């Protein structure tokens, strides 16, 4: 059964993330950055999210899509008390956070939007696909701040290449893209991180095929497909 990959933050500046394993269909519970892969180049729009849920602090990955809005996974915002957004790719020196003042979950799957209490403008933002049909063999790139192989804490933002296997289901029973790691795989803490195909974000990290992928760079995971939520994202955020 697929598992959500979300980890308790261990200390100040720690960026352990969420990530669901097979079959989970409820809000995230504690479980593990990308296994393998490579350190990502500077990516200002790839943000770190920290939040409180049931008295514990957790982290997820998010994408700034405008000066006021961040895209992530719904299980990263469901039931939280507060959320801070860090605009740094460094997990040891994340900088000063911007507080979120509203979070919204999509009615169509494990997709969410975070609204900032004060705007934070960037020079550019990623492109969201208008739709995507999972096609076996498509090449993709994933990014995130989750744990490294065997639960080692990250030192920053990592990325890896993956291959699309086909369609699957996300943590909220929405449509998902099933991927398999090529140079690396997602792990706890990569929840909400992007799946990029053809230069556009087509999904966000929802669940993993196993609860603990260990050091398996070819582990499978499921990225909530943005297609059904695309109109909702546009209506809510203007993006």
Question: Quick gist of this model?
Answer:
By secondary structure, this protein is mostly beta strands. It is built from 1 helix and 17 strands.
Report on this structure.
The chain has 1 helix and 17 strands. The chain is mainly β and 239 residues long. The chain has a single domain, classed as Thrombin, subunit H (Beta Barrel), CATH 2.40.10.120.
Element-level helix/strand string: EEEEEEEEEEEEEEEEEH
Which CATH top level class fits? Mainly Beta
Radius of gyration: 15 Å
Ranges with pLDDT <50 over ≥5 residues? Answer: 6-17, 20-32
Strand order of the largest sheet: 11-12-13-17-16-15
Number of strands: 17
CATH architecture: Beta Barrel
Q: Would you tell me the structural class of the helices and strands?
A: mainly beta
- Counted by DSSP, the helix tally is 1
Largest sheet: 6 strands, antiparallel, barrel
Q: What proportion strand?
A: 35-45%
- Number of spatially distinct domains: 1
Distance between the termini: 34 Å
CATH topology: Thrombin, subunit H
* Nearest-integer average pLDDT: 88
Please tell me what the overall shape is.
Answer: globular
Q: Helicity level, as a percent range?
A: under 10%
């Amino acid at each position: 059964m697929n598992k959500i990959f979300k980890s308790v933050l261990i200390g100040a500046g720690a960026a352990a993330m969420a990530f669901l394993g097979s079959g989970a269909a409820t809000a995230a519970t504690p479980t593990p950055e990308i296994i393998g892969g490579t350190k990502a180049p500077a990516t200002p729009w790839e943000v770190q999210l920290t939040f409180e849920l049931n008295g514990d602090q957790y982290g997820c990955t998010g994408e700034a899509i405008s000066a006021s809005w961040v895209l992530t996974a719904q299980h990263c915002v469901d039931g939280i008390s507060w959320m801070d957004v860090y605009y740094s790719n460094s997990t040891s020196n994340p900088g000063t956070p911007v507080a979120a003042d509203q979070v919204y979950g999509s009615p169509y799957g494990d997709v969410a939007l975070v609204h900032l209490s004060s705007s934070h403008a960037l020079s550019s933002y990623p492109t969201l696909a208008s739709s995507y049909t999972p096609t076996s063999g498509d090449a993709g790139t994933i990014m995130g701040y989750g744990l490294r192989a065997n639960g080692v804490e990250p030192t920053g933002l990592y990325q890896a290449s993956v291959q699309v296997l086909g369609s699957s289901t996300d943590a909220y029973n929405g449509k998902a893209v099933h991927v398999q790691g090529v140079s690396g795989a997602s792990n706890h803490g990569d929840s909400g991180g992007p799946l990029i195909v053809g230069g556009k974000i087509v999904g966000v990290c929802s669940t993993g095929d196993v609860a603990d992928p260990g050091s398996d760079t070819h582990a499978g995971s499921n990225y909530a497909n943005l297609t059904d939520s695309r109109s909702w994202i546009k209506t809510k955020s203007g993006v």
